[in-house]
Amino acid sequence: MSRIVYVNGEYMPEEDATVSIFDRGFLMADGVYEVTSVLGGKLIDFDGHAARLARSLAELDMAQPIAHEALLAAHRDLVAKNGIDNGLVYLQVTRGNPGDRDFAFPDPQTTPGTLVMFTQSKPDLIDNPTAATGIKVISIPDQRWARRDIKTVQLLYPSMGKMAAKAAGAGDAWLVEDGHVTEGTSNNAYIVKNGTIITRELSSDILHGITRAAVLRFAAEAQVAVEERPFSIDEAQAADEAFVTSATTFVLPVIEIDGARVGTGTPGPVARRLRAIYIEESLKAAI
Ligand code: PMP
């Protein structure tokens, strides 16, 4: 059975969904996106993702395509129409189709944005086998643009990073700038030393992860100390534990960095505990 997807206010089978070749998302990567995970048919942290979407749009002078309540309703409709139990809702807003290719932004009054949404089923979101083993990461230079706080669809460099990781037999790449880790290709990065969680502070250098915000809140509630500051690969390799967070992987242990074992080389207690708390609390708060 084909998926039902959402395009500009309408639901249709994926085969019937089209976007113009003149759409600025296609021609210029002039678009932003969000990924909201679904557990037991309910949305995890929808308000956080909607708020970050609004911020990404505002930073790029793009209009909010539909109101918050309508966005929530569309997410829920898609989950229901596709019978998603565990999985995700992907949302993308672009600056639309102005008719011709031109660097200048079109007038939003005459060129409405394009809004598309679709679901992906991921039955193993909670029982993710990689969460039990942890992942290896490699480090590569962070050669992305400098506004990583805006969640744009310019994902070529992160894709190249994933391919480099794959070629090296690793699960992901950590991006390094000026001697410090910014984040993973599609996640925020953390280390744990002497019981303290260390993760880079929020700035335009990194995406302000919705999962990061939740995990740091749960860490504080569990009396785990958190230091928000940059760390180097050397410091990470000498840490007791490392992990990453994202909406679809939750808390995922990192067991090796550039071939060096982190701690015991197995998922550490802080990462495992935070993963369990994150899943438990997210299930409680899901809408
Ligand atoms: N950093 C980057 C570069 C990402 O692509 C993502 C995932 N979209 C994250 C961090 C994690 O963000 P979130 O927890 O909101 O999924």
The total tally of domains equals: 2
**CATH-scheme architecture of the largest domain:** Alpha-Beta Barrel
Q: Strand percentage, roughly?
A: 25-35%
Low-confidence stretches: none
End-to-end distance: 26 Å
Bound molecules: 4'-deoxy-4'-aminopyridoxal-5'-phosphate
CATH domain class of the largest domain: Alpha Beta
Class from secondary-structure proportions: alpha+beta
| Shape estimate | globular
Structure description:
The chain is an alpha+beta fold. The protein folds into two domains: 4-121, D-amino Acid Aminotransferase, Chain A, domain 1 (2-Layer Sandwich), CATH 3.30.470; 129-285, Alpha-Beta Barrel (D-amino Acid Aminotransferase, Chain A, domain 2). It is 29% helix and 29% strand. It is built from eight helices and 15 strands. The protein has helices at 24-28, 46-59, 68-81, 129-133, 156-167, 210-221, 233-237, 269-285, and strands at residues 4-7, 10-13, 31-39, 42-43, 87-94, 114-121, 135-141, 172-177, 180-184, 188-193, 196-199, 226-228, 241-246, 250-257, 260-261. The strands form two sheets. Strands 7, 8, 9, 10, 11, 12, 13, 14 and 15 form a nine-stranded mixed sheet that branches. It has a six-stranded antiparallel sheet with strand order 2-1-6-5-3-4. Helix 6 packs across helix 8 (269-285). The model has no long low-confidence stretch (mean pLDDT 98). Bound molecules: 4'-deoxy-4'-aminopyridoxal-5'-phosphate (PMP). 4'-deoxy-4'-aminopyridoxal-5'-phosphate (PMP) binds at residues 35, 183, 186-188, 207, 209-212, 245-247.
